[in-house]
Amino acid sequence: MVHQLSIFIQNKAGTLEKVLRLFKTSQIQIITTTLADTQDFGICRVICTEPERAFLVLKEAGITATLTQVQAIALVNTPGQAADALEIFASDGIEISYLYSFLLKDKGVLIFKTDNKERVDQIIAEHCLTTLNDCDLIKLAQ
Fold first, then answer.
1. Is the distance from CB of 96 to CB of 114 less than 8 angstroms?
2. Average pLDDT for residues 51-58, to the nearest whole number?
3. CB of 49 within 8 A of CB of 28?
């Protein structure tokens, strides 16, 4: 499991920069980020080197954020690996709420949220998929 920050930001100029500036001034390295928007606000999801401290920094700055655990798996960096992994989950009826992916040191990384963590953990073990935790991602990012 990996800790993920979900940061709620207004859809107006400068708000995302303010959030990123807090990470910079706090010397917290962002490993990956994704931004989804709605009409009134955006949700910036962040995986970083110090998620608990980042959460406190954001809170002290008056920025609404949550800290949650999400699944993370490493894949071989070849075309189709993400599709193959998702097929395993789909064939077992696992619903993925959201997913994002990126590359670190020739590894594909899938970050995803599901409502059935226990079953996903079983499927990962049954299919010998490689799980990642916070420390694993930090090592890959260095």
1. yes
2. 97
3. yes
Q: Return d(Cα 65, Cα 55) in angstroms, integer.
A: 7
Q: Which helix (H) or strand (E) holds 58?
A: helix 51-60
Asked if 15 and 41 touch (Cβ cutoff 8 Å), the reply is no
The pTM (predicted TM-score) of the whole model is 0.89
pLDDT tens string 90-136: 999 999 999 999 998 889 999 999 989 999 999 999 999 999 999 99
Would you put residue 54 in left (φ > 0), alpha (ψ -120 to 50) or beta? Answer: alpha
* Spatial separation of the C-alpha atoms in residues 111 and 63, rounded to whole Å: 23
